[in-house]
């Protein structure tokens, strides 16, 4: 029988689900606050005992830009909430740069109500293919029980005029584009993720 | 204008589909539309390669000595390399590790299986690859456990591994299985990956990695999506 070490099998390691029990390994204290100013992101109600590997982010200076809160729910194909999903973000800083002092990466598990909550800064526009410019956006990864592999989507901002000319949004059928647009709701941006069914979020192969 | 290499695409033969009905939880959690194919932009070709420790904390490569006492179970050493599809090492990348204890119980509030918790084993760790892409950690062999997917369903022993790699596009979460485990053949999650690719997730026992009078050794390499030969302009 072949195995991981068989030369004839060399190639991409297959994805597997994170399952329902990732909360003591993947989230961390502060993981959902990309500005580095708070402890949100851990899931203490899912833990049993002391987990020494569950770290706390070091405090970081407040990054430049407009601080924003992003709150959303994850819903399944029956419209039920998904309380064991994990959302990951990857984004540019306010100037449209990746990988500077602002790390741009965060994680938030959904809570008992299927809700995730991030605090971050609003990203700037970044270069697109050719000479295009991409509208400000955040790359979103969705993991969880029942997800054999990551689903990838994007969050755009409803009040952003550059959405009209965004080269990636342009690839999405117009009637499905609203699933990628976060809406301002008072002090927060709302962005629900629907895994399946009516209003299914657009997911990308990238 | 900088040139950034794109990454190879998902290998559709080797990767599981989102919908795999034998794994029942996928039924309501799989998109009905195919994913929209997009070009890789700077968003997809960049990542947190060099700053994970600032976010999550440092390495934690021995899961058996995180508490006052020693963890119960069969002590094992797992070593391997993280490579890309071109066979190049992926250095300085983090591998997050989690697993059940030797009785098959997770230290998690929602794990209701009636197997004992081990106060000396949390089951989470973190290692970082060296310049050759190599890693090594020490743990106990996890136990199999029942789950509610179907009548008499048992998950084979497995260790969860999470890798970020150099870019958003190279993200990987997988599970490492053990050789000669009869449960692999009948596990809906492992078998969401068709043969022969499923076998990529089965580690190999290695007497050379085994430490005399101390721990059994297993080898497991992880292969991430590689740089494509064709450069893209961003």
Description:
The complex is a heterodimer of chains A (206) and B (234). Chain A has 206 residues and is mainly beta. Chain A has a single domain (18-46, 64-194), classed as Protocatechuate 3,4-Dioxygenase, subunit A, CATH 2.60.130.10. Helix content of chain A is 0%, strand content 29%. Chain A has no helices and 12 strands. Chain A has strands at residues 67-75, 85-91, 105-109, 115-121, 126-127, 133-134, 137-144, 151-157, 181-185, 188-190, 193-194, 204-205. In chain A, strands 1, 2, 3, 4, 7, 8, 9, 10 and 11 form a 9-stranded mixed sheet that branches. In chain A, a hairpin with a 2-residue loop joins β9 and β10. The radius of gyration of chain A is 18 Å and the shape is globular. The two termini of chain A are 33 Å apart. In chain A, 50% of the residues are buried. The model of chain A has no long low-confidence stretch (mean pLDDT 95). Chain B has 234 residues and is mainly beta. Chain B has a single domain (3-108, 116-233), classed as Sandwich (Protocatechuate 3,4-Dioxygenase, subunit A). Chain B is 4% helix and 29% strand. In chain B, strands 3, 6, 11, 12 and 13 form a 5-stranded mixed sheet that branches. In chain B, strands 5-4-9-10 form a 4-stranded antiparallel sheet, with no helix packed on it. In chain B, strands 1-14 form a two-stranded antiparallel sheet. Chain B is globular. The interface between A and B is large, with 91 and 96 residues.
The portion of residues assigned to helices of chain B is under 10%
Say which CATH homologous superfamily of chain A is assigned.
Answer: Aromatic compound dioxygenase
List SSEs of chain A in N-to-C order. Answer: EEEEEEEEEEEE
CATH architecture title of chain A: Sandwich
Radius of gyration of chain A, in angstroms, nearest whole number = 18 Å
Overall CATH class of chain A: Mainly Beta
Q: What count of domains describes the coordinates of chain A?
A: 1
The quaternary organization reads as: heterodimer
CATH fourth-tier homologous superfamily of chain B: Aromatic compound dioxygenase
Give the termini separation of chain B.
7 Å
Number of strands of chain A: 12
**How many β strands of chain B by DSSP?**
14
CATH architecture of chain B: Sandwich
Helix content of chain A: under 10%
Query: Overall 3D geometry of chain A?
Result: globular
What count of helical segments of chain B does DSSP give?
A: 2
